[in-house]
Amino acid sequence: MALTLGRKPGEKIYIVDSQGREIEIEVVKREEKLSNFTQLRISAPSEYQIIRGEIYEGSNSN
């Protein structure tokens, strides 16, 4: 399943699992000078690992 959204600074997205645990993703700010750059704040329970895509994809390549 995939979902594509547009969000403005201060807006949030929540991901909730079947046990009610939630991951909160908030758009923190967008650099006007760098139009392709957005900062996110991710809050999740400690049992979840938060891994940047380039690191995760690199660790899974064989």
TrEMBL record:
Gene Ontology biological-process annotations: mRNA catabolic process; regulation of carbohydrate metabolic process
InterPro entries cross-referenced by the UniProt entry: CsrA, CsrA_sf
Molecular function per GO: RNA binding
Pfam family name, one: CsrA
Name by which UniProt lists this protein: Carbon storage regulator
Species, as recorded: Virgibacillus indicus
